Amino acid sequence: MFDNKKFKYAAYYAIGVAIVILIINYMLVDMRTQPIKYNEFLKMLNEKQIEEVQVATDKIVIIPKADAGSGKKVLYTANLNDPQLVETLRSSGVTFGAPVENNNPIKSFFWNWVFPIILFTLIGRLIFGKMDKKFGSGVMSFGKNTAKLYAENETGKTFVDVAGQEEAKDSLVEIVDFLHNPKKYAEIGAKLPKGALLVGPPGTGKTLLAKAVAGEAHVPFFSISGSDFVEMFVGMGAARVRDLFKQAEEKAPCIIFIDEIDAIGKSRDGNIGGNDEREQTLNQLLAEMDGFDSSKGVVILGATNRPEILDKALLRPGRFDRRVIVDRPDLKGREDILKVHIKDVKVSDEIDLTSIAKATPGAVGADLANMVNEAALRAVKNNRKVVEQEDLEEAIEVIIAGKEKKDRILSAKEKKIVAFHEVGHALVAALLKNTDPVHKITIVPRTMGALGYTMQLPEEEKYLVTKEEMINEITILLGGRAAEEIEFNIVSTGASNDIEKATQTARNMVTIYGMSDKFDMMGIESVSNRYLDGRAVQNCSDKTAAMADEEVLHLIKTAHENAKNTLLENRDLLTKIAEKLLEKETIMGDEFMELVKEYQGIELEPENTTEKDDVSGQ
Ligand code: ADP
């Protein structure tokens, strides 16, 4: 096959040269010839200034004598079909006749055939070359790998760069060793897996891990995304797979990393009509994985967040038979990831990463890396040389709720509603047992739409949630609307997000976690896409689903009532804290708890001190 780029340059060059030759030729002809009028020609004949005359059908070429004063130029004039011309010429005594034909057959063959063919081929190649680029695929070089194959000889990443994924790293150490020394394994007859599948939610460090494996083993890293294989033309994807493996085998030992492998590896069954292109690509991938000699040291790492949709053929032994789970990091994992990223940033000595890790349950590596960067940007904005704890704390909020939107002006009435709404959440959280402590209440609007929010922080990482805790969560969520109803006797749109979350939690309790009396431990829905949005799939009859809806409604109604009653019983406290919040716009957890305790102390001390302990223990 041609090397497209070199060929293109050669084509430009050749066309350029041809054009220059034509121009020069034209100019030379122009310089050597000169038109004259017919009567001038007759005059020259008369005055014997002409050496030779060549009569063609359309023109008469005149070669003047050297002393005729026209230099060395050949003259010509139109042939007027003058019947006397031959007679005149004869009588003047000049040499005359028809023009001498250039009958060099090789030369004329070149100009008539070879030159036009070369010229048109070059122009054609150039035009197709352009189309090639436009469609991102080889029109002329069908099957050539023009996908965005990203190859690195040294990734520069090691396992030290990947924090909080100890189990995943442990499973990959063996692969690193194998790449270091494939012979050791071949000698004993051990076969190492050809491929491993990295499974986990987006941003948990799957790509990073694959790079680290290549970096640890000091082998080249080929990376391509599954979606790059799927092309408009049937057969292109398969050709690309072939090409990829060919290149990789030349560079073995090496790592091939296929991101979003589900784009090609989607299960083929239940796919009536099918997608021919994807199927062919998948078949080619399977064939290549079976075909290549693993003792050479090519290891394929695939990444996906939808393992359940992968074709079983892809997962059978000898292909992607290892599954490495790269899940969301836990508290310690998050702290370690923060440590990795904070290394590149100048920080003050008072930084407490544990508290930041605590405040970010559910965050993945990519979020945490982003947070550190946000904090650094904020420090620069505030003209500081180092990142402070407050920068990191603000960065968390920026990522959760967006930047502060100070220019959003709320009317006094709206502001008051928002304040009561937020204090409603916070107060219900503080007054119920077994809830996470309130960390911050604010009514400064944020760019992502929140007019205010209440932040609770768990004291420790939780892996199990009890029924009571889930009911509390719903009650806290509904506390915002309850406060609005109590204070203003209105309902506003401010609770839409709370409603959505509360309903989802109540639904999960009934349909997935077996927490309702009516359905006992019957599963009504199951979770698909565990690593993505965790959408639930209904697996019951419509009648059961309708009954489940009733249960959900019952849970929500009870929680709503509960929230209302809790706040009604503490209405003075609600008003007091809401007024404080209106005045200060942000109240931190400690200050909030002090207000609650102070109120509780006055109220409860004479009667029941244990009750007070319960509440203050929140
Ligand atoms: P994925 O491939 O799982 O979607 P990436 O590997 O592309 O995620 O992660 C994106 C970025 O997030 C990485 O470049 C890195 O900066 C950061 N990151 C993610 N996970 C980790 C981790 N476990 N340790 C350190 N950094 C991480």
From TrEMBL:
Q: What are the protein's UniProt keywords? A: ATP-binding, Cell membrane, Hydrolase, Membrane, Metal-binding, Metalloprotease, Nucleotide-binding, Protease, Transmembrane, Transmembrane helix, Zinc
Write down the CDD domains for this protein, in alphabetical order.
RecA-like_FtsH
Transmembrane regions: 12-29, 109-128
All copies of domain AAA+ ATPase, residue ranges: 192-330
Gene Ontology molecular function, alphabetical: metallopeptidase activity
Provide the topology term for how it sits in the membrane. Multi-pass membrane protein
Q: Report whether Transmembrane shows up as a keyword of the record.
A: yes
| Database matches in NCBIfam families | FtsH_fam
Q: How does it assemble?
A: Homohexamer.
Q: What does this protein do?
A: Acts as a processive, ATP-dependent zinc metallopeptidase for both cytoplasmic and membrane proteins. Plays a role in the quality control of integral membrane proteins.
Q: Kindly provide the name given to this protein in its UniProt entry.
A: ATP-dependent zinc metalloprotease FtsH
The organism encoding this protein is Clostridium omnivorum
For this protein's source organism, the top of the classification is: Bacteria, Bacillati, Bacillota, Clostridia, Eubacteriales
